[in-house]
Amino acid sequence: MSIALSELIILMLIFFGTATLYASVGFGGGSSYLAILAIFFTSFFVIRSTALLCNLTVVAGGCYLFYRKGHLNFKKFLPFVLTSIPMAFIGASFELNEVIFFSILGVSLVIAAIALFTQTINLKTDFNPKNYPPYLSYVLGALIGLLSGLVGIGGGIFLAPILHHMKWDRPIVIAALSSFFILVNSISGLSGLLWNNSFEIYWVEAVCLCIAVLIGGQLGTRFSISNLSARRIRIITAILVLFVGVRVLINNGLQLNFFS
Questions:
Q1: Cα–Cα distance, 171 to 76 (Å, whole number)
Q2: Contact 191, 89 (CB under 8 A)
Q3: For the chain, what is the total number of helices (H) and then of strands (E)?
Q4: SS3 content of the chain, % helix, strand, coil (to 5)
Q5: Which of 71, 84, 158, 211 is the most exposed place for a label (fewest CB within 10 A)?
Q6: Is 80 exceeded by the pLDDT of residue 175?
Q7: Residue in 192, 114, 219, 109 with CA at minimum distance from that of residue 155
Q8: Burial class (CB in 10 A: 0-12, 13-18, 19+), 122
Q9: How far apart are CA 107 and CA 102, in angstroms?
Q10: Is the pTM of this model over 0.85?
Q11: pLDDT interval class at 114 (50, 70, 90)
């Protein structure tokens, strides 16, 4: 083990809580895992690889539950996936330094959160999804796939605010798409890390953390399906995205010193 048992237990509890909260809106929690792991580990590649692996664990379980409830529309989701998978692989293949990595991550999240929160506050109760040309799904999938590969997370945290703002579909369907989008891009991103010889992991810690996020993710997804209203899903999504984005930007300098 690379860290003490007491630190691992603390990490597991934090990851459990994070997974529960993020899974309630269809996210895997990868952006927060990155920031949390930076406190305990020094290797940038270990942090990136572990966050993606935990992301994959959470959303795999979430997709199963969304599928059982009939919220996974594979035909409608396919355009996002077809273009995002190769772009996430390409993005993960780039070796970013920490300055570019955290800058892209933080700024992107803050912009997405502000747009979603503003739109949600002004949202009328009579929510009606809008129709968009099919090519737009391919374009969004490619752009967000590339971005998710670059920063090492599944990308749902970027995709969901945009789709909510566009009124692309019902919030529960967007949560399901986000979960599925994160799943396929996490797999693609991990493949890119392996291809580029950038995949590094501490297996004992990784397995323990995956168990913690699997349990938390199942609780969060079940809570979302049964209890959360559409408006609450949107508000929680915006708050989570904004919180992570601001934290990344504020801690950027400290994290860079930590990695150096």
A1: 15
A2: yes
A3: 11, 0
A4: 80, 0, 20
A5: 211
A6: yes
A7: 109
A8: exposed
A9: 8
A10: no
A11: confident
